[in-house]
Design goal:
Elements lengths: L1 E9 L5 E10 L4 E6 L5 H8 L7 E6 L2 E2 L5 H8 L2 E4 L11 H6 L8 H5 L5 H14 L14 H14 L4 E4 L12 H11 L2 E7 L15
Parallel strand pairs: 3-8, 6-7, 7-8
Antiparallel strand pairs: 1-2, 1-4, 4-5
Helix pairs in contact: 5-6
Amino acid sequence: MLQIKNLTKVFPDGTVALRDVSFEVQDGEFLAIIGLSGSGKSTLLRCINRLIDPTSGTILWDGVDVTAANSAELRQIRRQIGMIFQHFNLVRRSSVMTNVLAGRLGYVHPFWSLIGRFSADDRRRAVAALERVGIEDKADNRADQLSGGQQQRVGIARALMQEPRCSWPTSRWPASTPCSPTPSCATLNSSTSKTASCAACTSWTSSTAMPPGLSG
């Protein structure tokens, strides 16, 4: 279970991205975080796995205080959280297979990760992940040779390689866009009982309330 308690993030320039955010996500639950671009959705997700540090508040992952975790503990926590970034964060000159294998970095010895050495089992997992997202035929292609939608699928396959208990896709696309990661992550969520969350950018009207704690 994921628990967020009174989470606040204030950037050095004084911008308040998050203010006293609290919620819980049970195992197997799918949570959608929806708001305008710049409302704090991605900041919230980056705080959860400590890509950035919150200003105050507590993040508990199965009872473990993520906000107080040291570097070794954080490595163990992060490999349980699959991030699918809105800008893909792929190594564009590397092959699709190499990018997908990067999802196993939290499980291999740091020395072997530096020289890109992965086991045969890891490579079989990577092929299976690519098959699951429908681009197994692109395994040897460079990432920068793919379309935007195909690169997004590489990001999903990389997250699957982590065998995450929690998946955090972030997206700028509206929920109606066909290439949105939401359907794939919802399928993953229902088939594996993993916690999943999707941050999607939508249009808000004057009568629509912003999620509590996210900036307007």
